[in-house]
Amino acid sequence: MKNKWRNAPVHIGLWITLIILLFPVWIMISTSLQKYEDVFNWPPDWLPNKPEWINFVNVWLGDYSFHEPFFNSIIISVSTALISIVIAFPAAYALTRFKFKAKNLLLLIVLVTQMFSPIILIVGLFQLIQTYNLLNTLIGVIITNSVFTTPMAVWLMYGYLQSIPVTLEQAAFVDGASRFKSIIRITFPLAAPGVAMAGIYAFIMSWNDLIIPLILISEDSLRPISLALTDFAGQNVVYWHEMMAASVISTLPVAILFSFVQNLFVKGFMSGAVKE
Amino acid sequence: MSSQIKKERISYKLRKMVSPERSPFFFLLPLFLFLVLMVAYPIGRIIYLSFTQNILTRPDLGVSFNGLGNYTALLGSIEFWATVLRTVLWTGLSVIGKCLIAMYIALLLAKNIAFKRLYMGLLLIPWVTPMVVAAVVWKWLYDGQFGTINYILLQLNIIQEPIIWLGNELSAFIATAIVDMWIGIPFLALMLLSGLQSVPVELSESASIDGANAIQRFFFITLPTMKPIILVATVLTGIWTFNSFGVIWPMTNGGPVQATTTLVVDAYKRSFGAFDMGMGATIAIIIFLILLGFTIIYKRLLDRQGEL
Amino acid sequence: MKKYLIILLTLVFVLASCSSNEEEATGEKDSSKSEGPVTISFIQPGLEKPQTKKAIEKTVKRFEEENPDIKVDVQGVGWKQAYQKLVTGFQSGESPDVIYGGTRWMPAFQAMEAIKPLNEFAEEKIKEYPESLRSSGKIGDEIYAIPRSFSSRTLYYRSDLIEEPPKTWDELVKKAKQVQKENEGMFGFGISGASGAVSTTTQYFNYVVQNGGEVFDKEGNVQINSPEAVEALEFYRDLYTKHKITPNPLEYTREQLPILFKEGKLAMFVNGPWARGIMEIEQDDEDTPFKVAKLPKGEQMGNILVSDSLMMSADTEHPEAAWKFIEHLTSLEEQKKYDKNEGLVPILSEESEDPYFKEDPFFSKFVEMVEYGHEQPKVTAWEPFQDIVIEAVQKSLQGEDPQKLLDNAAKEIKKQNLEPKQ
């Protein structure tokens, strides 16, 4: 019994912190369930007395057809994650399993690239995407996103692969397996948490990004959520209730998805970025 | 005869060079191609632009090569240095806030308690919130007339009349930093948590037997053991904060006056507001150099950690 | 290794085929250009408003029915992103055939040679507009922009609290103070001074022209630091700092004022006709009864007419079709529908004769204000100019000296060569 209560202060501390941290999220949810007229009520309504679920229906299917940007975002984020992994995994493998001269330089380049904010490169990238004739295509956005997610993916998987002992693979070599086979059978499965973590990182980064689609996409039907969200703040008026409904739609699925894999992610991230 | 041997040797070497069994060539090829195709060009382009005068909307002023002109003009202007100072202060404020709060959360979560997964899941919500959304929600909370923050502070009698958070230079500066903290804290907290969990329990236990209290244990045992992780996490956070744009721009556009114009916001304003590509690129290069400095520090920290 | 390569290749292939599908789709459109109907693209910011979107879709449909050989592809973009998007697009030769945007953008677009002079089509058309608007779309004798929507300003006031609307600056201050005293928690007046918003400049310029000043003179010399303009800024500042009759302007764009008003936090504010649409209430509403009146006079009556226009891309392959579409949009019938739907001031001279506008107690006031209209300054690039002005306004609201601020602003405007070319 005593043990049970010993941790009470910790729980209370956590609850207070979480309440403060999640307060904006709560306001987002409660505003999304209000009528436009009630949004400006003073004092603010903490709980909408009659939740207006219709806001969500309107946003999803109605005038804003938010399902379109939502699925665009899913395509963009999943593809970005896949591309990042496909490019980054072999590179990370090479960086940990081979010795070569330019290794340190390459690592530094990867690190520096990871630190760019898209704003710095976007001017050049725009012209590049234009040259490749990829303006106004999802693939253009995906490739550009990958520029910013791949280096981090290399870095994260590099760290993770380092923590996997080479001896296991060597055992496979002794058995006469080719390098490729040993990767497929041994290294990749062992590195799966690291790979997943890099993929999730890429997914979330591209899910959140605004600048790249802003510059590259002008076709309505191709916009991702971040861009579509800017719609609700019009020239003259902000539709707070519907905007918040759209915000809930864009945040919650990722949050729920993420809560399932968070342990994996944090572990992988730490061994990648910090080398435990 | 000997030439044939030579040939064979060359082809053997070549094969060895590209053989996936022995050389990293094929493994690095995709990354290499990608970097060359997608990164080298934009960087080259930015470097070139930074040496030119090129205002897109002002063809009347002409496009010309002006050497280091942009750099001297920029480095010679007081506004630029004010922006640098502001960026440093803003980044510093946000990073310190993030570190303190994240450490507090990490310490709470490090205990072996029930519902840990639930707490961690809830904690991460701010981090997965798209920045556009975060900025919008917070702008709403900060609103001078309808904002909930004012309402609460008024109810608690902490303030007597509503504060226009985003309408004063100092309060806007702090308000934007708070939002940046809000987004950054969860992730940093988890990084620190995983660091805390790597502190051997025996160390702490033996200290407690020696009569050290919780605070002493934290400062003399936990912190020093965690130092490398704290350093690395702080540098990473510093870099991300330094780059923060998605929070400031939608909330304040860099205003009021220039109160929230950091270097990144300034670069954006010049490149996409005034379309002064030359100056925008020059600032981008300066940001690049600063980040390069950060990166080298980060790499050093990691390498030293590896030696330990 | 082979397996791996195959996986990689398949992925690339799959992704590539995704994109080529899209290209095919657009390719079909392209090929149809040469054979059947031509397709022109039209960009209109602000389509996020469902009401506007529907109206535009309808008018496009009517156009396509009348002109079966022309298809219109409507593109939307947020107002905040529009300018940036268009300029980046021009730079790379990506631009819609018909562009709807702020008339203030026209000089920069013209300088970039991104838009076409329309004289061959528009010599007659332009005469359908009131005098003050005709010149706004011109550079020299060349017509570049056809006005599409514009607005004058009036004073919105709470008719239950204010019987006689103020007629002069002094009365404005007095009335505002009085209402404020009588009503706890309400401000007498509202002005705007937020960053990055066009409304901050026009709100301030209204007082400049009312004070008999101008931002640029006829020859295009900067007059923003003239005594009249400085006095206007002093007055604008005093509303907040000395008389304390407005909430902190730095937080507000003009679009937020109607909301404050509706919620009973303001007794008066200056705005265009759309404010009624934002509040979603009619005059003499039960909870928030309001009326509109002519603006309070300074030295004279005046207000800045802000307009948006239709422009044609210099790269368009179908200028005739594009012009036909512009003509359709601005025809008396379509324009009337548009203005009514959007709650805008009638823009065609003939349109303002319509009883809907002329006899309406609400719209008639806006029509009256048109007569006192001044053109928005046609600076060579709007965005940097706006930044300079806003900085001066914001700093003055924070207590710095208007004369010094406007001197600096004038210097900066000259340094960047922003003066309008006449």
Descriptive report:
Chain A has helices spanning 2-6, 8-32, 54-60, 67-97, 103-114, 118-131, 138-162, 167-174, 179-208, 211-216, 225-229, 240-273. By secondary structure, chain A is an all-alpha fold. In chain A, helix 4 runs antiparallel to helix 9 and helix 8 runs antiparallel to helix 9. Chain A is globular. Chain B has 308 residues and is mainly α. Chain B has 14 helices and two strands; from the N terminus they run H-H-E-E-H-H-H-H-H-H-H-H-H-H-H-H. The mean pLDDT of chain B is 85. Chain C has 422 residues and is of the alpha/beta class. Chain C has 17 helices and eleven strands. In chain C, strands 1, 2, 3, 6, 10 and 11 form a six-stranded mixed β-sheet that branches. In chain C, a hairpin with a 2-residue loop joins strand 4 and strand 5 (142-143). The model of chain C is unreliable at 8-34 (pLDDT under 50). Classes of the chains: A mainly alpha (276), B mainly alpha (308), C alpha/beta (422). Chains A and B meet through helix 2, helix 4, helix 5, helix 6 and helix 7 of A and helix 2, helix 4, helix 5, helix 6 and helix 7 of B.
Characterize the overall form of chain A.
Answer: globular
How many DSSP-defined strands of chain A?
0
Oligomeric state of this protein:
heterotrimer
Q: Using only CA atoms, what is the Rg of chain A?
A: 23 Å
How helix-rich are the residues of chain A, as a percent range? over 70%
Taking all residues together, what is the mean pLDDT of chain A? Answer: 83
CATH homologous superfamily (4th level) name of chain A = MetI-like
Q: Low-confidence parts of chain A, pLDDT < 50 over ≥5 residues?
A: none
Helical stretch count of chain B?
14
CATH topology description of chain A: MetI-like fold
Describe this structure in a few short sentences.
The complex is a heterotrimer of chains A (276), B (308) and C (422). With 276 residues, chain A is an all-alpha fold.
